[in-house]
Request: fold
Amino acid sequence: MPMNSLHSADTLHTGVTHSASAHPRAIALIDVNNFYVSCERVFNPKLWQRPVVVLSNNDGCVVSRSAEAKALGIAMGAPWFQISKQAEKVGVIAFSSNYALYADMSNRVMSILRQFSPAQEIYSIDECFLELTGFARRDLTAYAQTLRQTILRGTGLPVCVGIGASKTLAKLANHWAKHTPAMQGVCNFTALPNAAVDACLAQIAVEEVWGVGRRLAASLHAPALAIHTAYDLKYSHAETMRRRFSVVMEKTIRELNGTVCLELEEVRGSQQQILSTRSFGQPVGDLAGLTEALTLYTTRAAEKLRRKQLFAGSVYVYIRTSPFREDRAFYSNALTVPLPVATNDTRQLVKAALWALRRIYQPGHEYAKAGVSLGELVPAQAIQQDLFHQSTQADKSSRLMLAMDAINRKMGRATLRLASEGRQQPWQMKQTRKSPGYTTNWKDLLCVD
Reply:
């Protein structure tokens, strides 16, 4: 392997820096293969071995691809309107995103994984870290295969498992397992000698390293550094790279060498904001349409707020036109409204959001997107009251929201809603290819004759 002035195999200690009596670290990353597509296939066996894609909001871009779709050259993020005719000619099947289905399937996977380790970090909707340190009596490779089979049997979803001495190595082991059929879905770097791990890292592009990405990789490819693979980055000088880039880069290098710099986060820190934003299915030009949309988005954000037992101290609202339309001037504006007392009452939050909307709205534009962000989130015990606060009003508000949420859970979302949300909602997001709510709607449950 070519070395340069920043490369030195002796600059970092290789191996885990633990005391001699401690167990060597073993961290697993479990990732569902082509998650959105796999969820669709569980309930529609006709999709197996067919090229399938799932589209983003408003059926805009490709966000999930089956292996068969990838083999046809369909790129991640490809605009569907540009490729749809050609894709459908070769048999590609496209679905709108079914977020309720995917969230439910994710919860089922994470619940099963919880049985395999006392320490779990849910990293994303389809990824999860497990702490396997101390499982000394187990063959971790066989244990990972059991894990895969249990998830497949319980949910129908295929997963790959990567095991490493750090989270970064676990990520790369997962990548190797996913792209190497001979691994049968499991790659355990902790069971391999350093030379074998290095041989794998030498075949993985540096942009595949967790936290690097394409933009940073372009700087690493420069002739002065000549860092093209994960192996090259592992043996670069950590302190020099920190001075040149950041402390994050140094931690990445140390993690590649087996030193844990990123521990599992079993309990996530307090949430800082709750977002609710959508692109419209068709442009909205009038204030009434924007009022309906902002009411709906604020209502959804308020529901999340109450589920997390939090209260918002501010409401941020933004609206914008499409930046891609050359025939119209672009307009974007936003406003934050501080609240005198933190609340999770939908009525109060909507009132603040619509107040902001009326001040940033300009007629004569066709708006393409709007959003709401609830900020300064605090739990109930941290709410700071104002001089004129009345506890009886707060109690009434709490009881009303509890009743509203209970009715909507039992009778269906939006059974009770604010009048300003409207009824027709022509601006709603396009989902012309959405599959049924197989696990979230009683009417869509599969029936066997």
Summary: The longest helix spans residues 287-307. The chain has 14 helices and 13 strands.
